[in-house]
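lol so apparently i was supposed to do this last week
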Amino acid sequence: MSRKPGRKPTVKHALVWVILLAMPVRSVASPHSPRQAQGFRLTDNARVRAALDWFTPNISWVNDQQVRITEIPAPPFQEGQRAAVVKELLSEAGLVVQIDKIGNVIGELRGVNEKEIVVVAAHLDTVFPLGTDVKVRRDGSRMAGPGISDNGSGVAALLALVRAVQFAHVKPQRTILFVGDVGEEGEGNLRGMRAIVDNYRERLKAVVVLDGSGTDHVTTKALASRRLEALITGPGGHSWSDFGMPNPINALVRGSVRFINTKVPASPRTTFNIGQIEGGTSVNSVPHEARLKVDVRSESEDELTRLESALRECIIAGVRDEMDSSRDRSKGKLEWKVELLGSRPGGELSEDSPLLAALRAADEVVGNESRIERSSTDANIPLSLGIDAISIGAGGSGGGAHSLQEWYDSAGRERGMKRALLTILGISGVAEDKAR
Ligand SMILES: [Zn+2]
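anyway here it is w/ zinc ion bound
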């Protein structure tokens, strides 16, 4: 609203001012108003300050929990053991905890307003198959081991946030659900977060995802991706006596070469990766099957659709080329199929969302600067449905994610946890009390 200078205030204007002046300014920090949800208001609250002060003296507890969690194997679809321990830790901290049908651990911190929910989630699963040595090696603040950062640091921060708010008796305005969710990585296809959003859809106001380390970014844009598998099968036979029959590996290679020559635009940024290729039983056998898995990502869903059809066409062409050049088709021909293993929808948080305002305010309080990022995380699901969501690192630093050399350094991690806490309380709101 702009007012022209010199214009006399009308009765209507005067009335508006009376109403505005009569509004309580020091009431509960309203989660609907980014201005009021800002960190400097939050830190006026003594309980919030006590929660913020919990982290520094408890860093070694947080580090120990991170090691303990990381050393429990949690491949996709096998998160049960880790979930049980997280459940126990959330219960110990005084939350009402349940494990849902799909395996998510959900700890509830009841707010004044139970009809509105903020979800704070850290995924439990790792990319590492059962049998991977997940022992963590520690050297001062540095820890090394598969999954230590992604998402050992997120889960540890989730546990620490609960301890901090419980220690300080913070009562949120909106109910907060602290969630250790399953199925974020690979073929888990975000099934844990899909179930959370499904179950709480009506009441869900915001989702804050804790994934990996750092405080340098905030993911507000969901990168769309698809995972595809191509499978070619044939009769198979002996490398010498059956030479000349169509070979599924040959066909797959022919098709793959065509596929990797597919042009993708720099903008909208689009990528593809053949991440796995397998088939055959021995070096002296014509294989009876060959398969490959491809991950395609893009800022545009249209580009994903285009790449998916390109893969299908290339596989068809590879099969055709192999059939055309085979000398012996008497024992059978090649069959093929391309299947969608998973799909992560895209979406974006609006620039003026209260959640982003809460994050920015938290950054200001802890003296942090962060850049907006586009990435593929649990936040894809709420964002694709128009529910406010962000994914942030849990503090400290780390590297080598998804590799056996993965590491995490806890130095300075309290800043990340304070940032997360202020963001969460900024969007949940905090009930006022006399303990200012
Ligand atoms: Zn992760």
